[in-house]
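Run log // design_07
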């Protein structure tokens, strides 16, 4: 049985979450405060573990229309994207803690680029998930 995870999420709320990630990562680079990316990491972990994203919950308060009136994004796809983001942010934090600046910038940069490209209209996580599902389907035919 499924939990109370919504089937879809209004696009403006998904974009708000992407802007949050892009902004925090950029601020961590500009001010050279690596641990600042703990914020999107905690938000992402909360969404994964407790199905509660405080950025999206707060954003809902500012929607001008009913959530269903907006173009919707698939909640399962967002969950998949979040797993990738949390993994990369976690790797970035561990890299920063180990003093590996290059790895920190690579991992946080991957999240920054993925969220930026998604804001521009192409979802890298969606592409990866589609290819994975396609691979699984082809394998099931053999």
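design_07 sequence
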């Amino acid at each position: 049985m499924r939990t109370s995870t919504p089937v879809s999420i209004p696009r403006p709320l998904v974009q708000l979450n992407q802007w949050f990630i892009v902004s925090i990562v950029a601020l961590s680079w500009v001010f050279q405060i690596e641990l600042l990316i703990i914020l999107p990491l905690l938000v992402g972990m909360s969404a994964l573990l407790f199905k509660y994203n405080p950025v999206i919950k707060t954003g809902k308060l500012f929607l001008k229309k009913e959530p269903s009136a907006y173009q919707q994004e698939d909640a399962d796809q967002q969950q998949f994207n979040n797993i990738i983001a949390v993994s990369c942010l976690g790797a970035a934090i561990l890299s920063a803690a180990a003093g590996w600046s290059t790895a920190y910038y690579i991992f946080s940069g991957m999240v920054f680029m993925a969220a930026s490209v998604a804001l521009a209209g192409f979802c890298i996580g969606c592409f990866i998930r589609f290819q994975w599902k396609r691979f699984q389907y082809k394998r099931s035919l053999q």
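Strands lie at 8-10, 72-74.
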